[in-house]
Specification:
This is Polysaccharide biosynthesis domain-containing protein. InterPro entries: PBDC1-like_dom_sf, PBDC1_metazoa/fungi, Polysacc_synth_dom. The relative contact order is 0.16. The strands form 2 sheets. Strands 1-4 form a two-stranded antiparallel ribbon. It is built from 8 helices and 4 strands, in the order H-H-E-H-H-H-E-E-H-H-H-E. Helix 3 packs across helix 6. By secondary structure, the protein is mostly helical.
Length: 211
């Protein structure tokens, strides 16, 4: 398994059947609550991991798949005018939208692992994963929109917000702990934090050479 899919875990026969259901023609999709419930826990784990990722690394440099360039170019070719900072659910889930998205999604069958797995997608990219701000989408649709949001700068608001809060918290803790203790302690935290985050990310930064 390559580094871009460490978050994936073995799935049950029930989940496999859901994946097969999601690969049916667009007119067969519907909004089946049983399908959505079958994915809920796994999709939430993926969402939590991804949100942590864009909070700790500048999203412009994230490489979520090995075919980021192709996904982005195909996405903007097919959905040139789609507004992605705040998504309209009708542009994702209406019958007309599903007919338009299906050919795009199927292009990545075989090149993107688990391309049709159910995934949670934020509607307003400046906000986190809440019940009101979340829609259910196939994995390739998630990749297409998030890669575009990353490249076009929309997701940077999350990164800046979290980094600003972290910086303020670190400054307050440093003052409380005393100057000398803070200096040595913060250096150790940064080193350990960078090591653990690097192991945990499961993606590469765009522009870096992959092993």
């Amino acid at each position: 398994m390559d580094s871009t899919s460490r978050m994936e875990e073995p799935v049950s026969a029930e989940v496999v059947s859901v994946a097969q259901a999601l690969s049916l023609p667009a007119e067969s999709f519907g909004n089946d609550p049983d399908i959505e419930m079958a994915w809920a826990m796994r999709a939430m784990q993926h969402a939590e991991f991804y949100y942590k990722l864009i909070s700790s690394v500048d999203p412009r440099f994230l490489k979520l798949t090995k075919v980021n360039d192709q996904i982005y170019s195909e996405f903007r070719e097919h959905f040139e005018k789609l507004k992605i900072d705040v998504l309209d659910p009708e542009e994702l889930k209406s019958e007309l939208a599903k007919e338009k998205w299906r050919p795009f999604c199927l292009k990545f069958d075989g090149s993107v692992e688990d391309f049709n797995y159910g995934t949670l997608l934020r509607l307003d990219c400046s906000q986190g994963y809440t019940e009101e701000n979340t829609s259910f989408a196939p994995r390739i649709q998630f990749y297409a929109i998030e890669i575009a949001q990353n490249r076009e700068g929309y997701n940077k608001a999350i990164y800046i917000s979290v980094q600003d809060k972290g910086g303020a918290k670190g400054a307050n803790e440093g003052e409380a702990g005393g100057k000398n203790g803070a200096d040595s302690g913060e250096e150790e935290k940064v080193e350990k934090g960078a090591d653990s985050r690097g192991e945990e990310e499961g993606v590469t930064r765009e522009g870096e050479k992959e092993n």
